[in-house]
Amino acid sequence: MMRGLACLLLGLISSCGEKPASGSSQQQTAVGLLPGQNTKGLVVLDARADRPFYWDFDRVPYGERPVHVFRLRNTDSKPVTILDLQANCGCTQPRIMMDVQGETIVGRSRSPILTIPPGAEAQLEIAVDTRLVEKMNIDKLGVVRLRCDSENTPFLAFEVHLVVERLFRSVPAEVNLGEIPRTTGKDRRADLSTELARSPARLVRIESIEGPFRATLDATQVGEEPVWILLVSALPDLPLGPVRGKVRLITTDNAGVGEAGRFEVPIRGDVVEPILLRPSLLVVSSGSGASARIECLPPGMRVSHISSFLEGEGAETVELSITPDSPDAEGRASAFLVEVRPRQGLPTQALALRARIRLSESGFEDLQLPISIQAR
Question: Are 75 and 104 found together in one domain?
Fold first, then answer.
């Protein structure tokens, strides 16, 4: 009997020392419930035999969104309500769903999320948005904690592992052109480099440009590391409003061979008029008045103030002044201060006025500034 006990202990020790295989191709699965798995509450079906609450995505290229689904069965004799699904980071994105009479019911974003009847199954989907992973080329463990009202399994923790592979990085990660003057367009630069020091990978050339943009790529050297300067330009005379796009680059593989790799840099911006008035609504709530600012966005653009006036009932009780900021000898400037103040304190009733401002730059309509003056 002692000999049998010793053999049993040796078997247990050797099984505890085994390490779970990494890589999706080596993962073992078991159909249905696992031997020794808790058979009460929420249980995992068709899971890894060694770690039922774990999934290994292995190595995933940057930009992809891998998804794994854990199948859950309610083995309690009463319904189980999912109360919370909490991920340890924004890149790990869970959701739970259930098939009911051929229709897929997706859990809500607030508590309670979903109720699983006795004997029914649900699918816990965990996706990882690799674009939101902060560190590249190292192990990443996403954890999703599930809280429910089952007395047997009130808390469950699910894990997904991956290594997000990225050969290159862009600083900044996105070319944000900000406000783009409609008449002139705008340029912005991004510096591209290899993610790992001394990597033989290389950017080859621009493959395509999406959106109303132009782009150039120039290689240089900073110390011993290669750097590529990406210059993105928004075209002039674009329609007003947001613009989006991206530059797609051809790269070598991680050994510096071929042209099979791709790297993308997103672009965004907002096309606006070249002369802006901020804020777009001026509220005067004290006797001292309020101010706004006129700005010329194109570099080097300077204009002069020709005329301005207030319109609306009660306009004669309000003073309007336009002051250039650092004007040249001809009074032209790239910015102006607009000041509005009641002549004798706040009026006894509210006023709704409008300022009309004319500048020297031809081809532009008068600037209009709505003004709300509060009553005392």
Answer: yes
SS3 (DSSP) at 199? coil
Q: Characterize the bridge pairing of strands 92-100 and 103-106.
A: antiparallel
Rounded Cα distance between 296 and 233, Å, is 19
**148 plus 67 within the same structural domain:** yes
- Residue 148 and residue 66 in one domain: yes
Which of 272, 300, 334 delimits the end of a domain? 272
Encode pLDDT of 77-124 as tens digits.
Answer: 999 999 999 999 999 999 999 999 889 999 998 899 999 999 999 999
**Domain of residue 343, residue span:** 275-373
CA pair distance 320, 313, nearest whole angstrom: 15
> Is residue 72 pLDDT above 60, yes or no?
yes
12 vs 329: CA distance, rounded Å: 91
State the pLDDT at residue 7: 42
* Contact status, residue 227 vs residue 170, Cβ threshold 8 Å: no
The pLDDT of 210-238, averaged and rounded, is: 96
For residue 342, count other CB atoms closer than 10 A to its CB: 20
In a domain? residue 17: no
Q: Centre a 10 Å sphere on the Cβ of residue 241 and count the other Cβ atoms it contains.
A: 8
Determine the residue type at 181. P
Q: Tell me, what CATH number does 186's domain have?
A: 2.60.40.10
